[in-house]
Q: What sequence folds into this?
């Protein structure tokens, strides 16, 4: 089994195309799992949608920003006009440009994907198994993983959401964050994705993980931002060029985050 995990494309079709070309150069995979946050904040949501729909053997998850689009829990005006307001207005801008096909596509997406290969289970979520708004990082306590999985026998837990790649072992489980295809926040502007492979040899070893970085033309995306009159063009240009978020505060309002978040585990 060989699975590619892509996450957090965020409307960046140039980075997506570069990652897919790199994946092809690696010999391809059996499955592609795209772990959510597909369209918002970037300048090319429709191009991303069209490209994703062309992928064979691919499944897609609903990220928190995708869910906010569906729930229409976003501001419809600039508000005070500061950088946070402009970023939040990206939801309105994206919604206006996605046609009915785009929303119909989002409505079909699940919160998680489980891929099984013999005794190995690969669980992919957007944020964490219990919430699409919870980020998993190197600072997440080992004990938290046991709580969030409710004893499910998972060999590899893959996620996105934080835009920062990660690969760690927790109580015999491999936890990987695939980083971000279109909006990295770890200081490296190259797109990031992961390839997870079955053990080599007699098949009794650990799952194999590659975190791959792929260069692409950042300035082409910056030009798209301004040419398409994106409300957060200047912020988007800064984020792409530096691979850093312009601010550390959570931009999503309590109203956006107030609905029930989907979970990959039973609450019983």
A:
């Amino acid at each position: 089994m060989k699975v590619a995990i892509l996450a957090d494309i965020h409307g960046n079709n140039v980075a997506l195309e570069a990652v897919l070309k790199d994946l092809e150069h690696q010999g391809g995979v059996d499955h592609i799992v795209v772990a959510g946050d597909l369209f918002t904040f970037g300048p090319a949501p429709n191009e991303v949608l069209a490209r994703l729909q062309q992928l064979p053997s691919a499944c897609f998850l609903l990220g928190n920003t995708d869910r906010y689009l569906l729930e229409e829990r976003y501001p419809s005006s600039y508000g005070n006009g500061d950088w946070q307001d402009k970023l939040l207005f990206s939801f309105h801008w994206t919604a206006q440009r996605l046609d009915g096909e785009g929303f119909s596509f989002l409505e079909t997406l699940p919160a998680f994907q489980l891929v099984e290969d013999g005794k190995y289970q690969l669980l992919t979520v957007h944020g964490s198994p219990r919430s699409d708004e919870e980020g998993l990082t190197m600072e997440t306590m080992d004990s938290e993983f046991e709580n969030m999985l409710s004893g499910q026998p998972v060999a590899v837990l893959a996620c996105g959401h934080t835009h920062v790649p990660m690969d760690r072992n927790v109580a015999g489980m491999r936890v990987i964050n695939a980083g971000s295809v279109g909006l990295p926040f770890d200081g490296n502007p190259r797109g990031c994705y992961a390839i997870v492979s079955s053990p080599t040899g007699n098949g009794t070893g650990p799952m194999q993980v590659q975190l791959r970085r792929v260069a692409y033309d950042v300035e082409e995306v910056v030009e798209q931002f301004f040419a398409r009159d994106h409300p957060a063009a200047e912020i988007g240009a800064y984020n792409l060029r530096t691979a850093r978020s312009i601010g550390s505060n959570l931009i999503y309002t309590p109203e956006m985050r107030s609905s029930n978040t989907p979970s990959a585990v039973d609450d019983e």
The two ends are 32 Å apart (CA to CA).
